[in-house]
From TrEMBL:
This protein's UniProt keywords: Cell membrane, Membrane, Symport, Transmembrane, Transmembrane helix, Transport
GO CC aspect terms: basolateral plasma membrane
Protein name per UniProt: Major facilitator superfamily (MFS) profile domain-containing protein
Chief localization: membrane
Amino acid composition bias (Basic and acidic residues), ranges on this chain: 422-455
Natural source organism: Eleutherodactylus coqui (Puerto Rican coqui)
């Protein structure tokens, strides 16, 4: 998760030099991070399907191999388009194979302390970023951007080692016929005896499934009818338009203000170090009994706080101001990232979480693709970064307010639906009790009438029988 999230931010250290090398504009250079993030999120459904089919371990190992190959191929690029393909598409798809299984496996392992576990796992991004940003500047000074990309590609192969350490949950499925027979015999010996003795009588129907059926089984499309999921999805789509652009242009903004290269790169390290503390701390707070039932509101307030930081950024005109902005930005960014998957699992539940992550990421790839280039276009148009920060801040504040109001409406409707369901169940119970009472009264009346009729007939029969006993005739005594 560290390489998946941090790499798109750390590689921005090379942007100014790549821009000068290829003669590209700010908007054109921003497409590298946009494509990388968009493909990383767009590959979510494919990654979810592969995880459901093969498990997390092989998918992460394949992702590490693909991302490393993409960065090594970028070393030989002779145009900006080739960088789009190698870094944005090839490496981005490899990162999607790393990200999704890492998120899913945390949800499988933890339930009680899941917010804290998500916060600690998401802290991988700032841990890697705090090291990678100054390292990239060092590599560039010594080897240039081409040599740096070659070394970074080799580092990305470590994702294969990390994926190999993923331990699957649950018993392994037996693969050989002998193992299958043994497994079935342990569960139900009679079935094995029947299958071995009378194989002709055991018929297993084979049903062919269409591609659409398999797709809908892997990705639960009914989530689009889920009110809470749709509120979350809309709010996040708006948020991601302005979420990553400030990070993409932070180092470049420092250089624009006259700050030296190492100090500009160190701004990302400051952001990462604060982010590193903020993510597990936020997870710990979100796991408390006061916040966890209201985690959706906490998430909305974190987004609003993030937007306010960007609105205040243009007030920083020197390096000290940028350091203060980086501290608050790292805190706000860590708060949002720590909860982004926890709030989704809180809405849809652990059973539908894998499908929900896949659907959310493929929709969110559109704003991730457009966000940084829009910010770059604003910088190209006005020649100043402050308008880009204003745009991102306003978008984040609007997204946070929408999520806050939307979740308030969702919780209110859920309470009304629960009350209506409870009332309906109570009415059903009362109706059944009334029906049972009427049936009981009817049975009681029928019993009384029967007894009455029996009393009218029985005495004559008893007298005649008595007389017959006395004198042998049916006459009265």
């Amino acid at each position: 998760m560290g390489f998946s999230y941090a790499f798109s931010k750390a590689v921005t250290v090379f942007y100014k030099e790549i821009q000068e090398f290829f003669g590209a504009s700010y908007s054109e250079i921003a497409w590298i991070s946009s494509l990388l993030l968009a493909v990383m999120y767009a590959g979510g459904p494919v990654s979810s399907i592969l995880v459901n089919r093969y498990g997390s371990r092989p998918v992460v190992m394949f992702g590490g191999l693909l991302s490393g190959i993409g960065m090594i191929l970028a070393t030989f690029s002779t145009s900006i388009i080739q960088l789009y393909i190698c870094i944005g598409i090839v490496a981005g798809f490899g990162f999607s194979m790393n990200l999704q299984p890492s998120v899913i496996v945390v949800g499988q392992y933890f339930l009680k302390n899941r917010p804290l576990a998500n916060g600690l796992a998401m802290a991988g991004s700032p841990v890697v970023l705090s090291t990678l940003a100054p390292l990239n500047q060092f590599l560039f000074d010594n080897y240039g951007w081409r040599g740096s990309f070659l070394i970074l590609g080799a580092l990305l192969f470590n994702c294969c080692a990390a994926g190999a350490l993923f331990r699957p949950i649950g018993p392994n499925t037996p693969k050989t016929k002998k193992d299958k027979d043994k497994a079935i015999q342990d569960e139900d010996p009679e079935k094995v005896n029947i299958s071995l003795v009378e194989p002709s009588k055991v018929v297993i129907p084979e049903e062919k499934e269409s591609c659409m059926t398999k797709f809908t089984r892997a990705l639960d499309l009914t989530l689009f009818k889920h009110r809470g999921f749709m509120i979350y999805l809309i709010g996040n789509v708006v948020m991601f338009i302005g979420f990553y652009a400030p990070i993409v242009f932070l180092a470049a903004y420092g250089k624009h203000l006259g700050v030296d290269e190492y100090s500009s790169a160190f701004l990302l390290s400051i952001l990462a170090m604060v982010d590193m503390i903020a993510r597990p701390a936020t997870g710990l707070i979100a796991n408390t009994k006061w916040i966890r039932p209201r985690v959706q509101y906490f998430f909305s307030c974190s987004i609003i706080f993030n937007g306010i930081c960007h609105l205040m950024c243009p007030l920083a005109t020197g390096y000290l101001g940028l350091v203060v902005y980086s501290v608050f930005f790292g805190l706000a960014f860590g708060m949002v990232c720590s909860q982004i998957f926890e709030t989704l699992m809180d809405l849809v539940g652990a059973k539908r979480f894998s499908s929900a992550v896949g659907l959310v990421t493929i929709v969110e790839c559109v704003p991730l693709l457009l966000g940084p280039p829009i910010g770059g276009a604003i910088v190209d148009t006005f020649g100043d970064y402050k308008y880009m920060f204003f745009e991102c801040g306003a978008i984040l504040v609007a997204a946070g307010l929408f999520l806050f109001v939307g979740n308030f409406y969702n919780y209110r409707m859920l309470r009304k639906e629960a009350e209506a369901e409870s009332r309906d169940q109570k009415e059903d119970i009362e109706m059944k009790d009334e029906q049972n009472l009427k049936k009981h009264d009817y049975d009681q009346v029928s019993t009384d009438e029967k007894a009455k009729n029996d009393n009218e007939v029985l005495p004559a029969k008893d007298n005649s029988e008595k007389c017959e006993d006395v004198n042998g005739s049916g006459h009265q005594c």
